[in-house]
Amino acid sequence: MFASLHRRVLIVGACCYVVLVKIVVRVKLLPTPEQAAALECTLRMVNDAANWVCGVAFERGVPREYELRRHTYGELKARGLGAQAAQHVIKKVRDAYTALRANARTGNLGGPGSKRRVKAESKPISFRPDAAQPFDDRCLSWQYDQRTVSVWSTAGRLKGVRFACSPGALENLRDHRRGESDLIERDGVFYLAATCEVPEKPVNESPAGFVGVDLGIVNIATASTGYRAAGRGLNRHRRRQLDLRRKLQAKGTKSARRLLKKRARKESRHAANQNHIIAKTIVTTAERTGCGIALEDLTGIRSRVRLRKDQRQSLHSWGFHQLASFVEYKARRAGVPLVYVDPAYTSQECSECHHVDRRNRATQAQFACRACGAMMHADDNASRNIARKGEAAWIAGRQSRVPATPRVAQTGEATRQPAAPYLQARPLTAGSS
């Protein structure tokens, strides 16, 4: 189960509102062999149809969705797709082209004329045979007590398809599921990813302090409370997986390729599980002590840092963004305030006397202030500096005189929302992006 970072505000009455956090709950389907064959055939048929629609959209210059529907809907129905399935295929294609244009506009595919951008824009978008397919409530219904679903397929309606999930996930599905669900196939196993809109807990407006979190590779996360998540085990696991991949790729046999495919997502699942455990520990500690959380804003760090060739693999497999997103959504659900701060000089500044000197960082693990003589673990020192910056950013946000965005209550009188609790403090200092 994971969460997106989108929030929606529902106005209730004249003076209160509810903020909703989108949680994506993924459940594992347990179909019979006949049901599994029907689901597999359905995914392949709808994705083959989506590839045909992509070709039509590319030839016609990616028309609006209404025009695309007018040119393709009849053929999709003739291919055996139901009315709602055909509509979802068209919408999926249109959304894919919208995402492509957005990536090109923001430079994610390189500049105009770059090899990567030209390659992406010179041919129709294509979907894998097992690409996810969205289903709405007319194509998919849930029976929570029986833990089964009824889903449309090209072989007809499949009823009584069993699914498995945790009690907490089932409760979220029963109480908060909204909108579409995606059918996903991974290595022959089927899943449903359902969107749930969960009410956000009111944010603690007066935190007792802030828990600073220093992110790293040697130590994945170090909190100012003394908690440290060592990265030795995860880094050892990654090196072992890397060595195994290299050996299997060098063999090149059919059995080696089969084993590579089987292990393809094992490392990412292991890392995500570790990040969930670390994030939960940090947020639970902050919630219990009535504190907020301060994280480093590490945007663009991979492009700023220059490393030796043997160190690049460690940096690019570092899941700091995933860990930060896990901490953020768990903090929102728990009502814990969270701020992002500029990490500049946090590893060089003494948390006791605030003297800044590059030579204060004696080694990777040791910090020794050349002004006051304070000695401590370097990550502990950095986490304390981040906590202090987070508290300063929170106070500055609370005291800001910039008017909040007004909202109109039912009475017609303008009221103001509280200042946003999830702040970003990015002072213009050397080394910041």
Automatic annotation (TrEMBL):
Keyword check for DNA-binding: yes
Keyword Transport attached: no
Cas12f1-like TNB domain: residues covered: 320-386
InterPro entries the UniProt entry points to: Cas12f1-like_TNB, RNA-guided_DNA_endo/Transpos
UniProt cross-references to Pfam families, sorted A to Z: Cas12f1-like_TNB (PF07282)
Molecular-function GO terms, alphabetical: DNA binding
Stretches the record annotates as Disordered: 401-433
Keywords attached to this entry: DNA-binding
Entries under NCBIfam families matching the protein: guided_TnpB, IS200/IS605 family accessory protein TnpB-like domain
Protein name: IS605 OrfB family transposase
Natural source organism: Kitasatospora kifunensis (Streptomyces kifunensis)
Lineage, uppermost ranks: Bacteria, Bacillati, Actinomycetota, Actinomycetes, Kitasatosporales
